[in-house]
Amino acid sequence: MTAYGFSLRHVPLLSRVGADRSDALRTDVDAAIAGWADAALLRVDRRNQVLISGGSVVLGSTASLGDKPPEDAVFLGRLNDGRHVWAIRAPLEAPEDPDLKTEVLDLRRGGQIFDDVSAQLLATATALLNWHDNARFSARDGAPTKPAKAGWSRVNPLNGYEEFPRIDPAVICLVHDGHDRAVLARQTVWPPRLFSLLAGFVEAGESFESCVVREIAEEIGLTVSNVQYLGSQPWPFPRSLMVGFHAIGDPEQEFSFNDGEIAEAAWFTRAEVREALDAGDWSSDSSSRLLLPGSISIAREIIESWAAQD
């Protein structure tokens, strides 16, 4: 338990683990090639969409791609049955089973229905493929780079300089008074009634906790204390890692919107938040004065976990 009896009730949806990442195989070329013939293949299109059936991503075979992984394929790990799993950026294809009912979804629209294995595979594939799409030239000298380590790095063939997938850490924090009220805010670009937690990117030379204090002061003018870690979640849109916290604020302190990102903020009681959660999320047609994020975001889990406290 964290301070004030507040911790996450569930693992955030995109943090779930369902497959073995098998990182040792990324540098074992012989093993990768040996497992390729029987490997499962995840196709991800240019919009980061996949085929899904029920709660599972549809995995095809590698038979049509040759006797070894193509250069732009990325290794995702191993399934429980031992099969290797790879992903490629490619148009979606009809499943091998013609009777299989499928739909086209991405993480944003379908993350809440994916099973653990599918959530992990697609979150990893989306992050890696997005990075490769935008890292084809060296950040050091602009030279073309080539994929290496089964898609987990890129190498400059001229000088051997190796680059790894970029991740941009961001904090996200629920500010509460230690009792029955919490702050929720609406960004300027959001429609009326849509509220969520405060978030921001970590700056160079800054800790997560310091970032929480700075961002909240910049966005709504509150001075917070007792910053406590809750959990984290990959957010591959395109390359973030959301690191969740809660902190104590003073309801008597006035709001000030200093950086122009926040249009309004307010203190809501736990009862008001529970009512909004019962009404659904941002996509609902509820007439509630408060609409909250969907379950794919760690923001939802943090809000639900706080609201569930007595």
UniProtKB/TrEMBL annotation:
<keyword id="KW-0479">Metal-binding</keyword>
<dbReference type="InterPro" id="IPR049734">
    <property type="entry name" value="NudC-like_C"/>
</dbReference>
<dbReference type="InterPro" id="IPR020084">
    <property type="entry name" value="NUDIX_hydrolase_CS"/>
</dbReference>
<feature type="domain" description="Nudix hydrolase">
    <location>
        <begin position="165"/>
        <end position="290"/>
    </location>
</feature>
<dbReference type="InterPro" id="IPR015376">
    <property type="entry name" value="Znr_NADH_PPase"/>
</dbReference>
<dbReference type="InterPro" id="IPR050241">
    <property type="entry name" value="NAD-cap_RNA_hydrolase_NudC"/>
</dbReference>
<dbReference type="Pfam" id="PF00293">
    <property type="entry name" value="NUDIX"/>
</dbReference>
<dbReference type="InterPro" id="IPR015375">
    <property type="entry name" value="NADH_PPase-like_N"/>
</dbReference>
<keyword id="KW-0520">NAD</keyword>
<dbReference type="Pfam" id="PF09296">
    <property type="entry name" value="NUDIX-like"/>
</dbReference>
<dbReference type="GO" id="GO:0046872">
    <property type="term" value="F:metal ion binding"/>
</dbReference>
<dbReference type="GO" id="GO:0019677">
    <property type="term" value="P:NAD+ catabolic process"/>
</dbReference>
<keyword id="KW-0464">Manganese</keyword>
<keyword id="KW-0460">Magnesium</keyword>
<dbReference type="GO" id="GO:0035529">
    <property type="term" value="F:NADH pyrophosphatase activity"/>
</dbReference>
<dbReference type="GO" id="GO:0005829">
    <property type="term" value="C:cytosol"/>
</dbReference>
<dbReference type="GO" id="GO:0006742">
    <property type="term" value="P:NADP+ catabolic process"/>
</dbReference>
<dbReference type="Pfam" id="PF09297">
    <property type="entry name" value="Zn_ribbon_NUD"/>
</dbReference>
<comment type="similarity">
    <text>Belongs to the Nudix hydrolase family. NudC subfamily.</text>
</comment>
<protein>
    <recommendedName>
        <fullName>NAD(+) diphosphatase</fullName>
        <ecNumber>3.6.1.22</ecNumber>
    </recommendedName>
</protein>
<dbReference type="InterPro" id="IPR000086">
    <property type="entry name" value="NUDIX_hydrolase_dom"/>
</dbReference>
<keyword id="KW-0378">Hydrolase</keyword>
<dbReference type="InterPro" id="IPR015797">
    <property type="entry name" value="NUDIX_hydrolase-like_dom_sf"/>
</dbReference>
